[in-house]
Amino acid sequence: TVQDSLSSPVPVVRKRITGHVGFSNLPNQVRRKSIKDGFQLTAMVVGESGLGKSTLINTLFNLAICPPRESLHPAAERPKTVAIDNIHADIEENGVRLRLTVVDTPGFGDLVNNGSCWDPILKTIEDRYEAYLTQENSVKRKKIIDTRIHACIYFIQPSGHSLKQIDIEFMRRLHEKVNLIPVIAKADTMTEDEVADFKERIVSDLAFHGIRIFQAPIYDEEDEENIAETEAIARAIPFAVVGADPTKTFRASNGRLIRGRGYPWGIVDVDDPSHCDFILLRRMLVHSHMEALRERTADVLYETWRTQRMLELGVAQDHSVFDEVSPADRLREDRIMHEAKLAKMEATMKEIFREKVELQEQKLKQSEVELYARHTEMKEAMTKQWNQLMEKKKQLESGSSDVVSYSFYWVVHGLTV
Ligand code: GTP
């Protein structure tokens, strides 16, 4: 039956192809397209003033992307609230372009009352989601300009104690809105053991407060290099980082140029994983997990925000469907609903038409009956009149003149014609 055929599973055909079909070239196509289009990453840096945010960004991209704070906000004009500064940079490496946007948040934690210093940051994250949603929903859709923030690097003061109240409050409010990447700033100011202890305390503090930071996923369970790298990243979080002025380099005893910080007792090499976690952070951000950051932003964080926003706007929908529906499925669903609506309208119109025809038919039948009745009545009256006249004729014929007979003929003839 139809029911049986619907409930039976669709057979899956698995064949090992021995000849060349050509679709193995697909990854190359994707790669070529990605190289042509370039990549785009928007990273936000948050932390109290002087923790080395600008220095770290400049070290990450080996460029003076973030200018010294004074050139952006001279001391006299420093914002009284948290400001949002966007810095754009186009970076090219071996022919691959990266459109980088750094969102700096000067003023965070610098105020006398830091009670709601996270509000402007939360607002800019949500405003960007709103801008994306508006473009997604617009009738004439061009290429969507995506300003959503893919990563928020949160700088923790290297106190060696535990997280401060402001750190917990900030991360608690933002962990479901953005990929949080906590880093211990200026890690060169602590010893190796102090860093390890501090990391442990931070991790347990985060777990205690139910704060979910970005967890780098393993892409390929069979790729040992990917597994090892992802595990190393997971162990290193929160990354203990050290920033260095990209314009200053040191020469090592073997002649190699070093980016780092010089001390009387030696040089802290930011690119040496035994000195700090800077390299791991950089690999995760722009190498191994950039796509994972972008994907989680689009598929989890933005989608969660979007669902809430739609519900706020009163767009109710079945939750079980709503959580998993992709824009294409949603369009299909809208089309099916529209078609069902049209079919319903058509059926209603057909019904109205049928009722009208039936009514007309009834009216016609009624008038037919009436006409027939009138016809019978008239026929009876005529027959009666005919019989009377015939009676008269007979009487006249039995004793009257030819003139009367002739004129009677014409009267009868006129009646019958
Ligand atoms: P604002 O722009 O005021 O928000 O500060 P910021 O967080 O951007 O700090 P910035 O990068 O301007 O660095 C402040 C000072 O800290 C500078 O003198 C840097 O040289 C120094 N600094 C930056 N990174 C490090 C680091 O990893 N270790 C040490 N010891 N000092 C650092």
TrEMBL record:
Residues in the signal sequence: none
Record CDD domains: CDC_Septin
UniProt record similarity statement: Belongs to the TRAFAC class TrmE-Era-EngA-EngB-Septin-like GTPase superfamily. Septin GTPase family.
Source species, domain of life: Eukaryota
Record's GO cellular component terms: cleavage apparatus septin structure; septin complex; septin ring
Keywords noted in UniProt: Cell cycle, Cell division, Coiled coil, GTP-binding, Nucleotide-binding
Domain Septin-type G: 37-312
Keyword hit for Cell cycle: yes
Alphabetized InterPro entries for the sequence: G_SEPTIN_dom, P-loop_NTPase, Septin
Parts forming coiled coils: 328-370
Protein name, UniProt field: Septin-type G domain-containing protein
BP GO terms, sorted: mitotic cytokinesis
Species whose genome carries this gene: Mycena indigotica
GO molecular function: GTP binding
